[in-house]
Amino acid sequence: MLDATVLIIDDDDDILLSARLFLKQQVKQVITCKSPREINILLSKNEVDIILLDMNYQKGASDGREGLYWLEHILSIDKDHIVILMTAFGNVELAVKAIKKGATDFILKPWENEKLFATISAASKLRESTRKVKKLEKIHSSLQKDLTRGFENIVGEADGIKQLQVTLFKVAPTDANVLILGENGTGKQVFAHEIHRNSQRKNQVFMHVDLGSLNENLFESELFGYTKGAFTDAKEDKPGRFELADGGTIFLDEIGNLSLPLQAKLLSVLQNRTVIRLGESRERKVNVRLITATNMPLNEMVAKNTFRQDLLFRINTVELLLPPLRKRGTDILLLANHFMQVFSSKYHKEICKLSHKAEDLLLTYKWPGNVRELQHVLERAVIMSDGNEISEEDLQLSPQRFAQNNAIPDEMALGDMEKMMVQKAIDKHKGNISKAAAELGLTRAALYRRIEKFGI
């Protein structure tokens, strides 16, 4: 039996009954309809794979004009619809015209059942092939930035990192939902990708979605997709990130930034494992591995009723807490040397070591931006260095920044530290939100959410 849904449109009850009785033994689902005027409703409620469309509906008509009109209408909804035209009047010229207008095939009535099944079978294979190509095209388009960015393996020998690696390799082969916590720049995305790379889904899609930079009005259309005409600019059907990640892993970064209404919508998708595109009512099943991350204290937010407890239960089957760089001791030098080698190769330089003073400087700095800040510092140092060694001066870490960073107590809560960093950035740039957001590595929208959160 073919895994296909066939829609048959014909005004002859005998034809509909005959086709239904035969095809229901050959395909997954058969839908019949007497009038092509019901096409829009039927296509919006059902995922139709093949359409058998009669050419004539008015009494006495034999020129096929109606069939060509409805063929064009169906293809205007989705140019990839598979349409097989049916007529009782054999006309080679009409058949050629129909194929040119986008019909997949042409069949004469009354048909031989073997001929009908062969036509349906070929159309089903074409539909499946087209579907795969479209999905690959959408994945390529949506993931272009992620594919060119690249990822680093986890570097570190600190006890906390070793324990995380042990947990990671236990969790990765499963489909358990993972919540990754940690300050900005601690490597949450790197850990998420390592989980995927060591999972059973490693040959499938890794879909990274930055919820912090996603406009609230675009949340549903980006994550769940939309149909043509769902809103003004919806000129074609578009699958959402969940559909594109089907079979793979979806990584929802900055999940703590979601508003309560959006949390409810996400929870519904995670519970039901289905998505509904904007503009239609049909549920589509999705099979994804979920990884989420945030630098926000979700348990405190639950207590304050700003984050749903049921959503927290859903996303943190396993929880990973990444330590800040200032608590990783000599891992700072391991990472610094790693980045030095990466950027020396990138910029075609022969830099082989850090000076002793540079190493001391790196170890005494508090790294409020964590691994991400260290990476930027080493890239700049490699660019500025004139010899084969990175000096203290090449690092460009000013005494003023040291004084500010040393004032940060290690035991300070993540929320308090984040508030202090936001306040400092705003004060430094005299209220210029764009400049403050750029320094913090945030979008303007994400910074505004933090300003509202901390009452700044």
UniProtKB/TrEMBL annotation:
Keyword list, A-Z: ATP-binding, DNA-binding, Nucleotide-binding, Phosphoprotein, Transcription, Transcription regulation
A Pfam family of this chain: Sigma54_activat
In-chain residues carrying the UniProt-annotated modification 4-aspartylphosphate: D54
Annotated source species: Pedobacter vanadiisoli
Database matches in SUPFAM superfamilies: CheY-like, Homeodomain-like, P-loop containing nucleoside triphosphate hydrolases
Domain of life the protein comes from: Bacteria
Domain Response regulatory: 5-124
Protein name: Sigma-54-dependent transcriptional regulator
Sigma-54 factor interaction domain segment(s): 154-383
